[in-house]
């Protein structure tokens, strides 16, 4: 199986923590329901391969790199405020909607 389509519940939680994303935010970025994310991370069900790929793609677009050991890490260097700015802008857009 293509490693780009692999993502565990632990990796998802860790990547969300690195990005300071809620399940709602990941769901929006991956174009999935919050229930899909929640059920996956809580071990209630395994999402379809294209949903796993969508989550992983959302993380990678945000700068997450999945190492060979499977541990997610943030690609941006320490002190890069781009992530914080992106999060603030997203929150502003959500409040206006």
TrEMBL record:
It comes from the Bacteria. Residues 75-97 are annotated as: Disordered. It holds the Pfam family HTH_3. Residues 13-65 form the HTH cro/C1-type domain. GO terms for molecular function: DNA binding. SUPFAM superfamilies: lambda repressor-like DNA-binding domains (SSF47413). Gene3D superfamilies: lambda repressor-like DNA-binding domains. This is Helix-turn-helix transcriptional regulator.
